Amino acid sequence: MKTTTKIKTLLVLAISAFFSNVSSAQDTAASNYDQGFRLGVGANVGYAVNDPYKLAVGGDVRLQYDLSQKYSLTLTTGYTNLFVSKGDAFPGETEGKDLGFIPAKAGFKAFVLGDSFYVMGEAGAAFAVSNGYHQTSLLLSPSIGYATKYVDVSVHYEHYNDFRKMNNGLADGRGVGQIGVRLAYGFKL
To answer: Where does the UniProt annotation place the signal sequence (predicted)?
Structure first.
């Protein structure tokens, strides 16, 4: 056997042994972590950043599947209402109408500082269901939060791409946003 062939064979064996050890270590770590589902029930309150809406109040249910200690997938739904201030209305309307909708979001959560602080991104749809609104909007929502075994507190921004907004008393297009706080109680299923 030539020297180069021997070196290549040894190199292949060394790489194989290395990946075998890495794979074995990961299997041991994963088997020590109990993957599974969690359910969270939350209350949300926020401030709508676009007129004519002001206050945002809602409730939600979040199903979370833990992929590992650091990463989770989420599905969230519930009900949110954007309240219109008295006297605010879109042009051509005599009084403002609140906007109530059902959000349906899928997301990814990553714990960044230990196992308590996280960042999360969600995307989905918001289905308007109140006061004659029959519209569906794209919904995007980044958030940061703190979670313990049972409590989850987060700050989020939600953007509803297709809902109407006003600017200086004129209906100037689409895109309503809100900044909110979520307080939830969660548990393993």
So the answer is: 1-25
pTM above 0.90, yes or no: no
- Spans of all domains in the chain: 1-32, 35-188
pLDDT digits (tens, 9 = 90+) for 75-102: 999 999 999 876 665 555 656 788 899 9
Rg (the chain; Cα; Å): 24
**Tokens, residue 90:** 């879109």
Query: With respect to CATH, is domain 35-188 assigned 3.30.1330.60?
Result: no
Contact 130/152 with Cβ under 8 angstroms?
no
Cα 116 off chain centre by:
16
Return d(Cα 137, Cα 119) in angstroms, integer.
Answer: 23
Q: For residue range 6-24, what is the model confidence (pLDDT) as tens digits?
A: 555 655 555 555 555 544 4
CA gap 140, 123 in Å, rounded? 5
| Whole-number pLDDT of residue 52 | 83
Number of residues assigned to the chain: 189
